[in-house]
Design goal:
Blueprint lengths: L12 E8 L2 E8 L20 E8 L2 E5 L3 E3 L4 E5 L5 E5 L5 E8 L3 H10 L6 E2 L2 H18 L2 H23 L2 H22 L6 H8 L3 H12 L3 H18 L4 H7 L5 H12 L3 H4 L7
Antiparallel strand pairs: 1-2, 2-8, 3-6, 3-8, 4-5, 4-7, 6-9
Length: 285
């Protein structure tokens, strides 16, 4: 399971630290940020071997890099690339709260995160409707799942968060283009793997998004659930196989149904005919 520890040794209180494969999640706060030791708490100019996503929840401060400084607002999502120097200046004594997510650089994540934060400026998301639900779900899943299973989900959740940042940043036309591109990837994955896909979660994991986001995407763009899209794809191929004389039991297996009963019921619901009725026996040709 993921590891959660308590830290009460410094003014910066670490409420939770959650580890998974290649990802570290830390939720911290300070009642009196001006009392923080900048060296002990890493607020002086420093760098890190991992990427950092900072979810800023409350406080009065600014983040400073070699190129610019930015006063942070509640709901800001900041990105600090690996091996890039930055530090934080506190501008007041308001209570400070943040979540910092450290990610080991990888190609799939890097392509998206550098598209989202191409100028490294913070992107503001809704605190109550986006960030806090994300944080709460992240914590809850870490307690329920094994490290291996949670690591896959954590990657998907982070990718979904980045897409939300991208959509907030982009004009509506670009948002549509981004969703269209993602839908195209999902359909391509189904086209290439329709006979072996075990469930919808497999599709969402392949795209590094959550199942709920995948469902919303298909429903918005196609007016159909991804599970239904996959089922119809299999049934259309099944009908072709039956037309060319393949026996129903064999077709059921070829198009990815776990049981013949499920195949039979799906055929009746979609075509109004049973597999036997759709089957063109070779002897009848």
């Amino acid at each position: 399971m993921s590891v959660i520890t308590q830290n009460t040794q410094t003014p910066l209180q670490t409420q939770e630290m959650i580890y998974s494969e290649n990802i570290f999640f830390g939720h911290s706060f300070a009642k009196n940020p001006k009392l923080l030791d900048p060296i002990q708490n890493r607020f002086f100019r420093h760098t890190n071997e991992k990427h950092q996503l900072i979810l800023f929840l409350s406080g009065a401060c600014e983040t400073v890099t070699d190129d610019f400084s930015q006063t942070l607002k509640t709901g800001d999502v900041c990105f600090n690339p690996a091996n890039t120097y930055y530090h934080i200046n506190f501008l007041g004594d308001e209570p400070y709260e943040r979540v910092v997510i450290h990610i080991v650089p990888n190609e799939a994540f890097d392509n998206l995160v550098f598209e989202v934060f191409d100028d490294l400026r913070p992107i503001n998301l809704d605190l109550h409707n986006v960030l806090l639900p994300f944080i709460n779900r992240y914590k809850e899943y870490s307690k329920l799942l094994s490290v291996k299973d949670f690591s896959k989900l954590a990657q998907s959740m982070l990718t979904e968060l980045l897409y939300l940042c991208l959509m907030k940043k982009s004009p509506m036309g670009h948002e549509t283009n981004n969703q269209d591109a993602l839908l195209k990837k999902a359909i391509s994955y189904i086209e290439e793997n329709w006979a072996t896909i075990k469930n919808v979660n497999e599709i969402s994991h392949a795209l590094f998004i959550s199942p709920s986001y995948l469902y919303d995407l298909f429903n918005k763009k196609l007016g159909i659930a991804p599970k239904t899209y996959l089922l119809q794809k299999r049934l259309k191929y099944a009908n072709t196989y039956l037309h060319f004389g393949f026996p129903p039991n064999e077709v059921s297996r070829l198009v990815g149904f776990n049981t013949y009963t499920a195949f039979y019921r799906s055929c009746k619901a979609f075509f109004g005919k049973s597999p036997q009725e759709l089957w063109v026996k070779k002897s009848n040709k």
